TrEMBL record:
This is Putative exodeoxyribonuclease 8 PDDEXK-like domain-containing protein. It comes from Limosilactobacillus fermentum (Lactobacillus fermentum). GO terms for molecular function: ATP binding; helicase activity. Pfam families: DUF3799 (PF12684). Signal peptide: none annotated. The lineage of its organism: Bacteria, Bacillati, Bacillota, Bacilli, Lactobacillales. Residues 20-267 form the Putative exodeoxyribonuclease 8 PDDEXK-like domain. It comes from the Bacteria. Keywords: ATP-binding, Helicase, Hydrolase, Nucleotide-binding. InterPro entries: PDDEXK-like_dom_sf, Put_RecE_PDDEXK-like_dom.
Length: 282
């Protein structure tokens, strides 16, 4: 079992050994695509901008040193993150200028930086803390944005398009908020359990969100009340479903194709006819 570090945490090598919230979510969306990505047989073509913006903001609140290191880092072996943030050079502007997404990211940073509650709750914590443990007999990993162990809580920081945007839940046939839509109650439950196993302390989860609007909106959220039941349901769901995902990774069972994602569209082969009335619609 490889020791997790900041350098290898996001590597596929450790993904084969440890389940994570993001990997579990990927398997729920499409087993075949997730396995292909793990085996590096296929790479999604999604734009990296949203990920860059999120990492830019997270590294800023981690520490000045971490932020500078992130700016100077090259994720692809070619351009640094700092260079990716700039527009292409022109005759009138040979150095380019900061892209609009990162001008907005600076505003998102400022709205949090100027907030007393955010500074009081989020900033004292130790940042990007790696935690590990077992859930349902299998190894899991997590990386906590801000852990205040002595006061018994931890925080996650999320960037969202709009905090108040409604999201359709097809399973329950109703609209819900971004926290429920993205499964953040599950993430909070996972991290709470891994922190307990790593440090021997039960910690309360909190979530800060900042929106990609002009001006940015912000919010601070707890997981009290009915959300505690959602967290327990999430752990129960993991214990019920994860065995199949480990079997897929071990080559014991074949992965299912969702039939709709980028990978499935790319690899789809027709083998017969489908009834018109059987077409799935989103």
């Amino acid at each position: 079992m490889p020791k997790l570090t900041a350098e290898n945490y996001y590597s596929h090598e450790t993904d084969w050994e440890y389940m994570s919230f993001s990997l579990y979510k990927d398997f729920k969306k499409c087993e075949a695509a997730t396995l292909a990505k793990l085996k590096e047989d296929w790479h999604p073509t999604s734009s990296p901008t949203a990920l860059l913006v999120g990492n830019y903001i997270h590294s800023y609140f981690e520490s000045p040193e971490a932020h500078q290191a992130w700016l100077d880092r090259s994720e692809t072996g070619t351009k640094t993150n700092r260079e990716l943030m700039m527009t292409k050079p022109t005759k009138t502007n040979p150095n380019g200028h900061l892209r609009a997404e990162f001008k907005l990211a600076d505003k998102m940073i400022k709205t949090l930086e100027d907030d007393e509650w955010f500074n009081f709750v989020y900033m004292p914590g130790k940042k990007e803390v790696i935690v590990t443990g077992k859930i349902g007999g299998h190894e899991w990993k997590g990386k906590v944005d801000s852990l205040v162990l002595d006061k018994g809580y931890f925080c996650d920081l999320k960037t969202v398009d709009d905090i108040h945007k409604k999201h359709w839940n097809d399973e329950n046939k109703l609209y819900t908020n971004f926290i429920e839509d993205r499964g953040y109650a599950m993430q909070a439950a996972i991290y709470q359990e891994l922190i307990k196993q790593t440090f021997g302390k039960q910690c309360q989860p909190y979530l800060f969100a900042v929106s990609k609007q002009t001006p940015p909106d912000k919010g601070a959220f707890d997981f009290q009340g009915d959300t505690k039941f959602l967290m327990q349901e999430a752990i129960d769901e993991i214990k019920e479903n994860q065995e199949r995902y480990w079997q897929i990774m071990n080559g014991e069972v074949a992965p299912k194709h969702c039939g709709k994602c980028e990978y499935c569209r790319l690899t789809k082969e027709l083998s017969g006819f489908q009834h018109v009335t059987d077409i799935e619609v989103d």
